[in-house]
Amino acid sequence: MPVYDRSYRRWDGELKRRALRFVPIMSMGVKNALGMKGGWFFTLLLRTFMVVSLVPTLLLFFANYALAFRPDFLPLGFLGFLEELRPYRAIQYPLLTRLNILFLMVYTVLFGSGLIAKDRASGALPLYLSRPLTLADYVLGKVGIIGWFVAAFTLVPNLVLWLFGVLADDRAGAFHEALPLLGPIVAQNVTAIALYSLTILAVSSLCRRPMFAGLIWFTIVVFLPTLTAGIGARLGSHAIPAASPNDALFALGYDLFGVGELYEQAHGPARGDARFAIEGVFSFVNPFGKTPPGWCWASMAAWCSLSLAVLTTTLRRQEVVGDSGRR
Amino acid sequence: MSVELSRVSHWYGPVIGLNDVSLGFHPGVTGLLGPNGAGKSTLMRLVTGQAPPSQGEIAVFGERPFANPDALMRMGSCPEHEELYDHLTGRDHVFALLHYGGFPAAEARRLGERAIERVGLAAAAHRRVGAYSKGMRQRLRIAQAIAHEPDLVVLDEPLSGLDPVGRREMIDLVRELGASGRTVIVSGHVLHEVEKMTRRIALIHRGRVLAEGTLDEIRRALDARPHHVRVATSDPRALARLLLEEPGVVSVEFAGGEARFEVKEPAPFFDRLGRIAADGAPEVTEFEATDDNLQAIFDYLVA
User: Fold this and answer.
1) 3-state DSSP call for residue B18?
2) Is A174 exposed, middle or buried (0-12, 13-18, 19+ CB in 10 A)?
């Protein structure tokens, strides 16, 4: 056996903690996604869309600000409408989620469809797995990337809106009144983050082209409600629409925030146009008002579990079989 | 022993990639040789923890490598078909991979910078990987494999895509890595290039290890095959007369000023040839064992 000079020195510093190994994957992924560039037209479209997507959130912020500090900014009719809709504070959270859903879907497809598909297409998975990382770190990192974007349109604006509402309300006991809303806000939005992140990653792991992944996901999310609504109406079942992830999410918010009870409260005294508008808001927040919450939770759990199973099975197979197995 | 495989098999569905392989790798460079589809890349994937073996045990520094971050921390690998992120610069690419591995950002920058310099990419480190030539991409792959100063470096076809100057530099780098005490496993099928990197090889064919050891050890083990020796001399026939007295000489052919011998027992033959050359009658100007090289051994074992 030859004697070597052992001139190299192993790096003996402190590595990031095992539990946090996914964080660099997430942070660099988010940074890359935000810096995504295409042609000038695509960049312009993306930037415009980003600005437009902030409109519902900004509108609700403005409404809250105006109600608290400058009611004269709001038209009298709108103030009257809010009066009928009292307590509007509870409704605005599921309403914001509902308003943001289109943007959320576009961002999910835009930033999520290629997260694993691109790695599969380019054979970059070994890049990750040759590092001191496990498959779980990789998946967590990817969930973190898309979860960050989903949270930016669900949990974050809702929480900021809640905080703003509390700070802007100078009534005694306003904080205690608003506190019970935190639970539903977290529950609905964390469910949305898990649902959107896991489903798009599962589809992305099945495809090698982000475009196909996006199309498949969009088809599931956009056309399934029509299908389940049709079947539900035909069979006279309120449970079937819960199979659609978006409808289950809306119905969940409806239940968590007690919108049904608010509807009952608002239903009585409202008259004429106001009543029509109020009913419009409620049915916008939850198109299938009678979907049983248990079915919604079951549907959410099923979608998340199925996505996780698909994701881990596909990646595990990729890991075991690898590129050589496909050539 | 740095890496030890005991009765390892791996299959892809019905296709066997590795078949009952037992093999060990020591510090220094070991060449992994075999034709395309022999199982070299599969073996490397298993050693680098990219997949678990279907059967058998693999130990890298005493630990199972699959899904084991502690073992992965001690190795650097450069898979043949590994792709790179084209939108990142070379510098950012190496940084990202080090950072993913748990290195703090500042340390990842420092180590990445050093690795890039080491593979001769410093001048192009700020350019996007998408604009790199094949050779530059190959250097970048190697940079990310050695950046964290691993104890084990596994390089799958590291010379592919490199120009002659790049090949020369890469061969030197591999030898340097081996000489510094690391265990380096390097695969290839361009035999003379592997031979320039190391004399220690493992020959794989159809998922099995045909031979392992130094070239000399393997050649000696192939005693059934006569050695071929070419001797340039002033009088080939006179030389043949003298050497045919040796018991191990099987045959002789003449071509111009050369005599070509087939020898079963090389030691007494070379003793005698040395004495003749020293006496100078007939004059021996050059001699060479024509099949004491990798190509010949490879041909014997694989053909």
Assistant:
1) strand
2) middle
Length of chain A: 327
DSSP for residue B102: T
Nearest by CB to A10, from B49, B83, B151: name it: B151
Angle at A268 between CA A262 and CA A274, to 5 degrees: 85
Residue B185 has a pLDDT of 94
Q: Residue B167: which residues within 8 A CB-CB, separation 6 or more?
A: B159, B193
Contact flag A126-B50 (C-beta cutoff 8 Å):
yes
Residue B181 exposed, middle or buried by CB count within 10 Å (0-12, 13-18, 19+): middle
DSSP letter at B128 equals: B
| Closest chain B CA to residue A36 | B87
For B157: left if phi > 0, alpha if psi spans -120 to 50, otherwise beta; the answer is: left
Place of tokens 């509902």: A98
Question: Can you give the pLDDT of all 327 residues of chain A as single tens digits?
Answer: 444 445 566 667 777 777 788 899 999 889 888 877 677 788 888 888 888 888 888 888 888 788 778 878 878 777 776 666 655 567 888 888 888 888 899 989 999 999 999 888 877 787 888 888 888 899 999 999 999 999 988 899 899 888 888 887 777 787 888 888 899 999 999 999 999 999 999 999 998 889 999 999 988 888 888 888 888 888 888 788 888 888 888 888 888 888 777 666 655 555 566 666 667 777 777 776 677 888 889 999 999 999 999 998 888 876 655 543 333
pLDDT tens profile A287-316: 766 778 888 899 999 999 999 999 988 888
Torsion of CA B178, B181, B183, B188, to 10 degrees: 0
Predicted TM-score of the model (pTM): 0.78
Q: Give the bridge partners for B10, in sequence order.
A: B18
Residues from chain A contacting residue B100 (CB–CB below 8 Å): 21, 24-25, 28, 128, 131, 133
pLDDT at residue A319, rounded to an integer = 61
Residue of A nearest to B79 (CA): A126
**Residue B226 preceded by cis peptide, ω within 30:** no
Q: Work out the minimum CA distance from B116 to partner chain A, whole angstroms.
A: 16
Which residues does B213 contact at the CB level (< 8 Å), separation at least 6? B200, B201, B221
- Across the range B229-242, mean pLDDT stands at 89
- A307: tokens are 């996505």
Cβ B247 vs Cβ B268: under 8 Å: yes
CA distances from residue B183 to A102, B93, B179 in whole angstroms, order as listed: 54, 25, 9
- Distance between CA atoms of A36 and A261, rounded to whole angstroms? 45
